[in-house]
Amino acid sequence: MMQPLLRNTFAYASSRSAISRCGTLKLSVRLLSSSYTNLKICRYRELVADTPMVDLTHLVAKDANSELANSNVRVFAKVEFLNPGFSIKDRIVQNILNKAEDEGKLKKGMIAVAASSGNTGASTAMMCAMRGYECIITTSPKCSKEKMDAIKAYGAKLLVSEPGVEEGDPKHYIEMARLMALEDPELYFDIDQYDTLSNPEGHFLTLGPEIWQQTNGLVTHFVAAGSTGGTISGTAKYLKQQNPEVKAVLADPVGSIFTEYFKKGSYGKPKDFLVEGVGKGTIPGAMNFDIIDDVIPVNDQEAFDTCFRLSRKEGICAGGSSGLNVFASLQLAASLDPNTPAVIVTVLPDLGVKYLSKFYNDEWLTENGLKPPSAGQI
Ligand SMILES: Cc1ncc(COP(=O)(O)O)c(C=O)c1O
User: pTM here?
Assistant: First the structure.
């Protein structure tokens, strides 16, 4: 039987590279035809990061005075839902797991535990499947059915907290994961996305450099909503190290405490909002407010309407936080001097398919007091 001597030189280490999605597969070709050499084929897990950037500048026109259509302001977005787990969270989970394995904190036989609004849970479940770990994900009842089902599809165990539990309560999904890991640290490894600095570091090492390279260093503003704060904190840190003039703008759902905390240094009780995965009721350890230059609050209707614009005008079916980020970016673009060159970069954190039963469903919108998309609105 022919036994080709395959040697994939893009073994595990290359999955840590931010620069190339898929390296050339080098084959030891003693028995193989030379036509198999130099194939760009890799393991699925090596596809994390190195996402495309798309131009959304023409969407500015509707939200701004007509001059802006011809202005020097550009709005670009990183298509983060093209990561293997269909969200930006693959970047941080990869970094957290790599570091934990390298430092001996995560060993074979241990169980990874992650509290998540859904995407980190799916990334953790996917990467644990790839690496041979069991995992338990805790989430809130706000998490869409699609995200819950995806977590289970990767073979993870899913625990959903009761509705209406406040952050800090032992029955809150974040506390559930923390307490489980505290109870038996030899058995459980806590992904701890809200507080670990390996979270912003994942973006510092990958998303920041990619944005810098893809814009040839012309980026002037980075816009992102926050939950853990890892995306904005890690990415802005990298970009500001390259050019201290780069501004970091936090897009924030109306109801989240981040806006009030940024403006007043204090905050009251959070209010309900429907966009998933962003905004918070406490300040996570991964969030660095010192690096944030401004905050733009965005309400549910504005975020979802922008998703409908993206899907119906661009063919981009993205999650609610993408609409929120793009709305804030368009607002920012409208506020800038059209004669001064500016490059605003934002992220499309996850895939709209994760919300087909929610805001992409007219009945769900109406039940929740929101307007379905109509041609006029778009
Ligand atoms: C859909 C979505 N968008 C944005 C974010 C915010 O990212 P970060 O936690 O890095 O602030 C999250 C985080 O859970 C998310 O799930």
Answer: 0.91
